[in-house]
Amino acid sequence: MTTDVAKVVLLVALVVVNIAFVIGWIWAVRRHRLSGRPGIADIAIGSLTTFLDTLGIGSFAPTTALFKFRRKPPDELIPGTLNVGLNPAAFLETMLFLTAVTVQPALLIGMVATATAGAWLGAGVVSRMPRRRIQVFMGVALLIAALFFAMRNLGAFPPGGTAFALDGWRFVVAVVLSFVFGALMCIGIGNYAPLMILLALLGMHPLAAFPIMMASDGMLQPVASLGFFRSGRFAHVSALGLTAGSFVGVLVAFYIVKSLPLTTMRWLVTAVVTYAALSMLRSARAPRTAESIALNS
């Protein structure tokens, strides 16, 4: 399979799964009797975090942090809301970036396919998790994200190599770990930093992560969303706000701003995300503490 054919296959698959995404959302609205209109705050959050995502910082961790500061939606609905509400941004970014860098077709297709499978499995698991467990996982996910932001600013990421293709055991490792990253997306761990580190350690050029990351997000988020539609475990109104804001954030970043002092912005995001992580873990601990007091009284 040539690179051009691989990109055409991915773009067709992207359109198909996003048609399913739209149909699934409409079905979820009717089945779960969802209603409401997004407020300015949700739209602003969507605009800001997808703006950061398009510039390469990421959107899952900042969006989770801002949700936590607002104290809504409820913590157990945040994973589904992230995947549903930020999916349109992933679709736009994939369409804009996929043709920018050429990478090994088999590796691109293989990693996207396993990431999508991981997302399907992960969404099913997260949809059945109790609130406290989701809080713990998301608190840890935010701390991991903050660590990645700090590592990037301190130059601690592996420098990478010059390859745009992998073979043998390196190919297998990349495809298998892509499945893991896809599953972790469902609890709020974005795949940008893990993919950059993985591919760099395997000797690939840093730019090789971009088409793989964009295509993976573009495919796995609508697939994961189908699981959240089925369970109804997402905040419909907040997701609508993220969607509305994403069109502004992505297009402004891609066509107008294009570059900013990202190191300073990452340090700011690191501080905000770390605070939100500690707040999430504190929320997870609170019910258990209350239960212990009740048992001992």
Summarize this structure briefly:
The chain is mainly alpha-helical and about 300 residues long.
Layout of helices and strands:
Layout lengths: L2 H30 L7 H15 L5 H11 L7 H8 L1 H11 L7 H23 L3 H23 L14 H17 L7 H10 L7 H23 L4 H22 L4 H35 L1
Explained architecture:
The protein has 297 residues and is mostly helical. It has one domain. Helix content is 77%, strand content 0%. The chain has helices at residues 3-32, 40-54, 60-70, 78-85, 87-97, 105-127, 131-153, 168-184, 192-201, 209-231, 236-257, 262-296.
Multimerization state: single chain
Annotation, overall tally of beta strands? 0
The termini sit apart by 68 Å
Number of helices: 12
Q: Percent of residues in beta strands?
A: under 5%
Give the averaged pLDDT, no decimals: 86
Summing up helix and strand content along with how strands pair, one would put the structural category as mainly alpha
Can you tell me the number of structural domains?
1
In helices, the fraction of residues equals over 70%
Tertiary shape:
globular
Question: Can you give keywords for this protein?
Answer:
297 residues; mainly alpha; 77% helix; disordered C terminus
